[in-house]
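Methods: example folding runs. The two proteins below were folded one after another, and each record is reproduced exactly as written to the output file, sequence line first and structure-token line second.
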Amino acid sequence: MRYIIFTFCFICAASFATPIDVRVLDNKGDPVKDTVVYITATNLPRDEPLESKTLVTEVAQDGRAFKPYVSVARVNQTVLFTNKDDFSHHIYSITGPVELSFIIRAQDHEVKKSFPTEGVVAMGCNIHDWMSGYIKVIDTPYYAITDSSGMGQIHVPVGLENADIIAWHPQMNESVEQKLDQQTTVTFELQNDMSPIPKQKSTQAISFYGLSK
């Protein structure tokens, strides 16, 4: 009987989540892909749902590039670094709540990390110095990453107090946020030019650690 009541309450609670469509446009009106959009509030729930506790963000080294270029992870969530190349990478960070510096060998080698506080993890590779990638670490379960049309959707429960919706991308040159009230659609239009994304490839023909590529 307790199981039935619990299941019913869970379904009822989930039904009160409101989908919010978020769109991010640059100052020319073009969509901005890979923007992290997320909700903050003074009464965010502290009990993590099961899916959040088992959630894993994968950051792959693939074709001498971080894929995806921008990732998002929750505080203390597992981030799985994988190597899909047939040569090694040496990952390091220049910002973030935890300093990264580790070698990830070829062929399915994995390294697990997590981050205890919010922040921006800016990453590079000491072997392939053109590689760059970012992890945005947030302390909220309500977030999305925009697609190629600049769109993302966040399912937000009713009753959040002093809620804000924030948009972040490493190439943005401004703070972007709005108060969240009753609206179900939010559009961010940037005022400043975005910095260009660094070219994620090189003509370099030699990799280190005894592996040429």
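Second run, written to the same file directly after the first:
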Amino acid sequence: MRNYTLDIKASPLTLAALPSQKNLVAIGCKNGHLFVYDLTGDGKLLHKLHYHERNINSLAWCPVPYSPLNSDQSVEPLLLASIACDRTGLCISRAGLDMFNETTIALPMRPMRKSTFRNKNNLLWSCVKWIKPSILIVTSGFGEIIKIELRPDLVCGPIVSLISDSHKDIIFSIACPRESTNLYLWSSCMGRKLIRTPLLRSKEEAPELPLEVPTLGGFVYCFSLSPVNSADFAFGLGDGRIYYWNVSNKRQLELITLSQSVDSKVLSLAFHPQDEGLLAYATGDGRVGVFNLTRKRNNNNLLKTVLANPIYRLCWAPFPNTKMVNDSKLALYAVGNGQIVIYNDMSLWTDPFHLKDYTQFNEIEDKLTTPVKRIEMAWKPNYDVVAIGNSNGSIYLLDGNTLKLKHVVNGHDQSVECIIWHPTHVTSDYSEESKYKNYFASSSHCIRVHQLNEDCTPSLVVEFKGHKEKINELAWSPHHNLIL
């Protein structure tokens, strides 16, 4: 790695290397300054010019050393295209000779698209790519991708045509492979979408729609797969958005934004194990809600907020003292602020129940000097046992029907971050129940795997050590037994 220093005051914004000579680099700067720099040796400033009045956004070298504007190919002017955030147009200069302005191509001052375009931020930004000797790709300030076809000797001027108007926002960057049988242009915009646009298609070829790839604008804190339909996938972000993705849709990679009114981090998600359309979520400020994915309107059902702290775990399970049958109504359990609350009536005005209303652990916890907080909760797939992880490293095993304490599992030195039960079935042998269905794994600074014996007493199977930090999440493989 080498450092080069310009001997003049400049604020570089963009640069582009010459394809045929890697030692030549064009540098676009603030206030419209443009430099051509030679990287040989200690570096040398070759040319500087000032065709633009404002910041230069993008540069592109001609892919061939000769000029496609002239018939004489013996001269190598090394044409350089530059575009700035003013409306002076696209400037093409002879960077290999005298930096004389070869031509200036005016860009459309109004949108070429038929649909309306609203530039909320009033930004001026354009990009340029020189993909063929006589073809340039330029983005306008209206979210459009424009093709500019140069003509020899500048007799009739260039041909300017619209390629795509798929973007609804300002395009900030574009990329295109130089050598490919099928040319595609990748572009990104403020709308957090990557769009692949086919280029240079002939009229005989079948039209190809652009491919839209959505991206994310925040940290992913949680995700959940639907147990009813494994193609349904949801994940929550730190910007308060919840995305729903049906991965079976191979024609279009589409993310559906569910939440527009959630202002806090989405920390937990849980699909309903029976109803395909229900998705529960919890946030960093203690709010809990349920989305109905089958509805297009009024699909967000916000529940009453009783926990003012982050909620890290949600579980769908039977209400206490309720026998589980095929179509039984399931309650929603939320773990946060060291407590566990139970939402049985999905209403904003109904108070949830507390776990301490059904079971007490005073005989164990009264002997301790520090209060014990509930951190984690995991139900066995058949709902006959529920495991609760605590802040002191202990795990309570409760009866799934009465929520009465059955056993206490000790072994972790610090709070239990995650508990997960082994799947009842695995895809490699789905005809029979797994003989490891009574195994459950828990994590803190280490991973411990326990087994429930025939008399429902837990016994340690194995312990894994080596992590220096807390282990936040575990997952059993749904395809093979005992892969964690």
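Comment on the second run: The mean pLDDT is 87.
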